[in-house]
Write a structure and sequence with these properties.
Elements: H1 2-14, E1 36-42, E2 47-52, E3 64-71, E4 74-75, E5 79-80, E6 89-94, E7 100-106, E8 112-120, E9 123-124, E10 128-129, E11 140-145, E12 151-156, E13 166-171, E14 182-183
Antiparallel strand pairs: 1-2, 2-3, 3-4, 3-5, 6-7, 7-8, 8-9, 8-10, 11-12, 12-13, 13-14
Length: 196
Amino acid sequence: VFSNIRKCNFANTAKYCRFNINRELLDTTINTSFSETNPVMFEQGKKMFFCSDRTDDTTSRDLNIYISKLNHGQWEKPEKFVHSTTNDEIPLFVNNAADEFYLSIKDKKNKWDLYVSHKVDSEWDVPKKLKGKINSNYNDKGIAISNDLSTMLIASDRKGGFGGYDIYMLKLQKNGTWGKPINLESINTKNDEIYP
């Protein structure tokens, strides 16, 4: 009930806000009869990761990551991310320098974990599972990092949360590791808060 009241209050306030937004449905170069979700723009909006369950000759209907480039105002034919796996994958975040790409990959036990791929000599390297206290024995699916690189937000359904997925905050420590995940109690509900 409280969640619905908050949504109504937000809608009531938002109707007075004027946003200058130009919505445009991307053509069939990007959109297909399958699902295309989780677009992540980078390099000043000239490149985009997204995931899709489209099929090709080599995969089943898993969620795979694709990349497309904007060329003279048109998106080029997407290519499958060079390190796509046979498991479901979701693109989440690219840092401002466009040299770190964060993603979530489902393992063979149907559990999501957070990974990072670094750009080395203009090529993305094999994604590596994030170390430390970031991943848990539960599902870890969303991530965002502050511009000053001092704060990380993750979404997880780990034990001790308020509902399904909750948002947790981690602070970068002096030794370069991420601190203990702290549940952001003021924004988490009994429902899912997934993508910070």
